[in-house]
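F.,

This is the one I mentioned.
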């Protein structure tokens, strides 16, 4: 597997569902890293907000639901 940033438009289109589902997560990670947090600290913050007991898929669903409400208050 190669990183999403190295996917061609055709490959990205073939995996549109997975790509768009993860895009919300990576947007939050990017926002925090640009603010000075490390990626590890940001991921820990995500788990702190959503809980370690949830699966990655459930966390991604939560991110999408939060996005429609302007994002989770602890992840802004």
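My design for it:
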């Amino acid at each position: 597997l190669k990183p999403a940033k190295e996917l061609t438009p055709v490959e990205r289109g073939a995996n549109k569902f997975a790509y768009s589902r993860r895009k919300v997560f990576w947007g939050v990670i990017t926002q925090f890293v640009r603010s000075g947090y490390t990626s590890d600290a940001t991921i820990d913050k995500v788990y702190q907000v959503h809980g370690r007991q949830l699966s990655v898929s459930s966390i991604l669903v939560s991110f999408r639901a939060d996005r429609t409400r302007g994002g989770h208050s602890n992840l802004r």
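The chain is about 65% helix and 0% strand.

Talk soon.
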